[in-house]
């Protein structure tokens, strides 16, 4: 079995949003302002093992074999507290996480991380949760993690804005989005793998609180989601790319207008964005998206992935290039004891 005697191991993959999650309406429950929609990747998995240790007086958390540092440790312990509260257990745990993606670089390590942690911790603590409930649980670790519970294309519902807290919490979950044939690839250009200056959490808060462009973006993002679902449904990758690019650049515009401005784009990012424009001028389907960091992800046809990667590689000035395709749902690994 995947979990015996209070121990479980899970693997989850990162996701990249095509319709972005940017802005919370409830910081404690991590309820977003808007719906978002992503593609789960088939690269950079996170593997997390949770082992309950009855009688231990603290949680022992390691990331890649090294003790977790302050902020990461605090977030993981807070998350385990939530699981313990639901499970009615006081047991502390040993948590070992192996990330294959550079942490904190806007490459969604928190998405795969909290999705894997949610699945492993729920199993280790004996919570019997379906994928929907697990997506709500993962959401409490990091909003985008809710989407990594599922493979391929995934929507995360913002949930009910009226009614009780519980109704809001119950209605904010992720689920798969049906699509027509797409055969996409996502070329990831890592122009800077270092940790970012401003966390997505802090940047989101500042944007919602101070940016005059936030409300208009949130309104237009609703329309983008409707258009995106239709484009995915008819298998129209060109439209998917167009909508994803405008939604992401709009999100970055909200941050540039925040006070003080949050700017994740670097000169290298802009050079990569220029190369994406050039690809389009040359007749190649290629559209860019960016998250809370300078790295650029380029959506293209799988058949064009090598060509796109080549062009992006020369633009990325030595940065690493990865090619991702739609990836699998989070899952428990068998054989953990
Ligand atoms: O889940 P967080 O708090 O790391 O926020 C992620 C926000 C973006 O990556 C910028 C957008 C998204 O929808 O993933």
Structural features, described:
- This protein is 38% helix and 23% strand.
- With 337 residues, the chain is α+β, with helices and mostly antiparallel strands.
- The chain has two domains: 183 residues, Ribosomal Protein S5, domain 2 (2-Layer Sandwich), CATH 3.30.230.10; 141 residues, GHMP kinase, C-terminal domain (Alpha-Beta Plaits), CATH 3.30.70.890.
- The mean pLDDT is 94.
- The structure holds (3R)-3-hydroxy-3-methyl-5-(phosphonooxy)pentanoic acid (PMV).
- The site of (3R)-3-hydroxy-3-methyl-5-(phosphonooxy)pentanoic acid has 13 residues, from helix 5.
Concise overview:
The chain is α+β, with helices and mostly antiparallel strands.
Mean pLDDT across all amino acids:
94
Strand percentage, roughly?
Answer: 15-25%
- The total domain count is 2
Q: What is the level 1 CATH name of the largest domain?
A: Alpha Beta
What is the fold-level CATH name, i.e. the topology of the largest domain?
Ribosomal Protein S5, domain 2
| Sheet with most strands | 7 strands, mixed
- What ligands does this structure carry? (3R)-3-hydroxy-3-methyl-5-(phosphonooxy)pentanoic acid
| Low confidence ranges | none
Helix content: 25-40%
Distance from N terminus to C terminus (CA atoms, Å) equals 8 Å
Q: Count of helices?
A: 9
Structural class: alpha+beta
Q: Categorize the overall geometry.
A: globular
Tell me the Rg in angstroms.
19 Å
Q: SSE order, as H and E?
A: EEEEEEEEEHEHHEHEEHHHHEEHEE
- The CATH architecture of the largest domain can be named as 2-Layer Sandwich
Total E-strand runs: 17
Keywords: ATP-binding, Lipid biosynthesis, Lipid metabolism, Lyase, Nucleotide-binding
EC number: 4.1.1.33
InterPro entries: GHMP_kinase_C_sf, Mev_decarb, Mev_diP_decarb, MVD-like_N, Mvd1_C, Ribosomal_Su5_D2-typ_SF, Ribsml_uS5_D2-typ_fold_subgr
Protein name: diphosphomevalonate decarboxylase
């Amino acid at each position: 079995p995947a979990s015996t005697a209070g121990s479980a191991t899970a693997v989850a993959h990162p996701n990249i949003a095509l319709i972005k999650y940017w802005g919370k309406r409830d910081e404690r429950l991590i309820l977003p302002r808007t719906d978002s929609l992503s593609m789960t990747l088939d690269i950079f998995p996170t593997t997390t093992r949770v082992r309950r240790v009855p009688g231990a007086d603290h949680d022992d958390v390691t990331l890649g074999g090294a003790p977790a540092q302050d902020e990461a440790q605090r977030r993981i312990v807070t998350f385990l507290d939530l699981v313990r509260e639901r499970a009615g257990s006081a047991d502390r745990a040993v948590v070992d996480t192996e990330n294959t993606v550079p942490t904190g670089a806007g490459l969604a390590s928190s998405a795969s991380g909290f999705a894997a942690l949610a699945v492993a911790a729920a199993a280790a603590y004996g919570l019997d949760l379906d994928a929907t409930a697990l997506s709500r649980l993962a959401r409490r670790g990091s909003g985008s993690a809710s989407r990594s519970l599922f493979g391929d294309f995934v929507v995360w519902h913002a949930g009910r804005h009226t009614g009780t807290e519980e109704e809001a919490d119950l209605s904010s979950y992720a689920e798969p989005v049906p699509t027509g044939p797409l055969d996409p690839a996502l070329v990831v250009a890592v122009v800077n793998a270092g940790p970012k200056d401003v966390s997505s959490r802090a940047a989101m808060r500042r944007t919602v609180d101070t940016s005059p462009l936030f409300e208009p973006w949130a309104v237009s993002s609703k329309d983008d989601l409707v258009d995106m679902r239709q484009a995915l449904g008819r298998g129209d990758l060109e439209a998917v790319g167009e909508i994803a690019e405008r939604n992401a650049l709009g999100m970055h515009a909200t941050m540039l207008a925040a006070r003080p401005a949050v700017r994740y784009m670097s000169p290298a990012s802009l050079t990569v964005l220029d190369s994406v424009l050039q690809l389009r001028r040359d007749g190649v389907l290629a559209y860019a998206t960016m998250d809370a960091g300078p790295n650029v992800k380029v959506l293209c046809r799988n058949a064009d992935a090598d060509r796109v990667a080549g062009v992006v590689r020369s633009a990325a000035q030595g940065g690493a290039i990865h090619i991702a395709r739609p990836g699998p749902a989070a899952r428990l690994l068998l054989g953990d004891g």
